[in-house]
Write a structure and sequence with these properties.
It is built from 8 helices and 10 strands. It is of the alpha/beta class. The chain has a domain of 170 residues: Rossmann fold (3-Layer(aba) Sandwich), CATH 3.40.50.300. The strands form 2 sheets. A 6-stranded mixed beta sheet has the order 6-7-8-3-9-10, sandwiched between helices. It starts with a strand and ends in a 5-residue tail after the last helix.
Length: 250
């Protein structure tokens, strides 16, 4: 029996009079990659922002490792082992790779009360992490983020989540605006995250990418869960597209 890592139960969210989420339930097991699909306006990003602490629901419960929790902000989410990687990677372009990896959690040199950053440690960890996430060429950890390609930036964001032992990594449209090779790199990182003991939620418009890496598919339509246990190995892309749109296969 799979062990449940995170559960969002009966989540409701309104924006004015518009109900963006209507009693939505989502669960993720340990070492599981879940694809969260739905048309524009289905509620995917809203649901993920609630789990990552960027938004707060009007009602509903969130459980992590079986315990009910309150996620009031992104700091709460990170403390619970939930890290979100958006399509813009949420990185600071003028800072180095190493600084971005440790942003807000930088190690300090002794004596710690002087608040001196331990750049040697950050650079050494950054070198190792870049190799772990599949960047083959030698990129100095002091390189500013602005000098990296889109795929390399996503790699840095994923490396940050993996280094801080996030149990759940949420990827919101991580392959948008990436080339073919970079996209395959990101998908390899997702598989590698699972192999390293992490769980993932993958949101992507490209259903072909989802089918390549996920264990289970959840579909939202107009703020409601319409399917939550689709096995990509037991169905077709056409069948899932039919569930997303609510229209029968022609």
């Amino acid at each position: 029996m799979p062990e449940e890592l995170v559960r969002m139960d009966r989540i409701n969210k309104f924006f004015g009079r518009v109900q963006a989420l209507n009693d939505v339930t989502l669960s993720v097991n340990r070492n599981e990659i879940v694809g969260l699909l739905g048309d524009n306006g289905a509620g995917k990003s809203t649901l993920i922002k609630i789990l990552s602490g960027a938004l707060r629901a009007e009602s509903g419960e969130i459980y992590v490792r079986g315990n009910q929790v309150k996620i009031r902000n992104t700091t709460d989410a990170m403390a619970l082992g939930i890290e979100t990687i958006y399509q813009d990677s949420a990185l600071i372009s003028q800072l180095s790779i190493a600084r971005n990896l440790f942003l807000g959690r930088e190690p300090l040199r002794a004596p710690r009360f002087l608040d001196r950053l331990d750049h040697d440690t950050m650079n050494e960890v950054a070198r190792k992490l870049l190799k772990q996430v599949g960047i083959k060429k030698e990129i100095p950890p002091t390189t500013p983020i602005s000098a990296l390609s889109g795929g390399e930036r996503q790699a840095v964001a994923i490396a940050r989540a993996m280094h801080f032992e996030s149990e759940l990594i949420i990827l919101d449209e991580p392959t948008n605006n990436l080339g073919v090779e970079e996209t395959q790199g990101v998908l390899r990182f997702v598989r590698g995250a699972r192999d390293s003991g992490h769980s993932c939620i993958l949101i992507a418009h490209n259903i072909y990418h989802v089918f390549q890496v996920v264990d289970r598919i959840i579909v939202l339509r107009r703020g409601k869960t319409v399917a939550d246990d689709i096995d990509p190995k037991q169905t077709t892309i056409e069948a899932v597209e039919s569930i997303i749109t609510g229209m029968p296969i022609s």
